[in-house]
Amino acid sequence: KQMNGLKHRAILVTGGAGFIGSHTVVELLEENRAVVVVDNLSNAASLKGSLPPAIVRIKEIVTAEQSEKLYFREGNYGDTDILKGIFQEFEIEAVIHFAGFKAVGESKRLPLMYYRNNVAGTLYLVKAMEENGVKNMIFSSSATVYAEAPQEKLPLVEDSPVGNCTCPYASTKLFIETILKDVVQADPAWKVLSLRYFNPVGAHHSGKLGEDPKGIPNNLMPYIAQVAVGRRKHLNVYGTDFSTVDGTGVRDYVHVVDVAKGHTAALSALSSFKSGFRAYNLGSGKGTSVLEMVSAFEKASGVQIPIVEANRRPGDTAIFYCDPQRALKELGWKTERSVHDMCEDLWRFQKKNPNGYVSDCKEN
Ligand code: WQD
Questions:
Q1: Where is the NAD-dependent epimerase/dehydratase domain (predicted)?
Q2: 290 and which of 165, 204, 248, 363 could share a cystine (Cβ 3.0–4.6 Å)?
Q3: ipTM greater than 0.90, yes or no?
């Protein structure tokens, strides 16, 4: 609270210690906004009794003045007591909702954990927002909500068919979108922008902030980066017999800072957005194959990445990329960073942090 007892106006960011979340928090602070991050650190490095490394690094990147306006509250984003405290302490103007489990394979093994945390948690968050008259949300959705599309139906637009999700993780994103649509139907005072990320990769150009997955990375680029620093022996290329340019999977890679800027663009658009639920693709609009990403990373890092051809992963599609026109037209957003930038920024981060943020957690 301010000296005069007035509450600070702020944006509530759930999961703000995560990969996309932390990069978005930097952008919000650099727009001189106040930000409250709530995160249970279940997928983030943590240091007993002090701020988590991701939050410390965000504060190092922005100015001292901007750093003052970053508040961190540890806990579950769906915990009604924690939410009550935040809404009492701050004048929350909007919520950017990143928090959620997101490992495809894990979701197949533990569907109930995914539905409880991702879907039920969101129900409590939306309830608390409603009770406090906060009806502006930017939702972190995913391209995985789209049904597999034959090549002639690409690129994917926001009205492309959704559903037939290949894993519970993807279903949680689709169910949450459906729930939010129904909430908006019932109360048009709500405004919800749902941002469907394609493949976010890369890191902040400072090398201080990046993807710091726990365990073995599921995703391509963090795995490649770990091979480059010697943490993994080689890259397994999952499938080399797809009907694509070189037989390997083609995806729409987008720099994580471009994705972060998509959130601040959406937040600015909210005020002029009349009402309702609207989805936006956050992607480059271009497809790049696994082998093309490997060679782009080798060029950017100067490090050879040994590869081993392996079987396809169940559920992997050949080609997946979007048409990002709606975000350009309505949010004034488009990607500005290239695949080379993604690889360069990722390499700088990985080189400086071979083991991710864990180096910050050593008892000094
Ligand atoms: C990309 C390409 C793989 C790893 C994921 C998930 C989900 C989503 C982000 C949030 C594919 C190939 C990968 C490896 C490989 N997150 N690959 N060797 O599967 O497109 O989608 O994106 O929503 O996590 O939906 O991303 O990075 O796992 O795979 O050959 O070790 O790289 O087959 O062609 P994906 P990915």
A1: 11-283
A2: 248
A3: yes
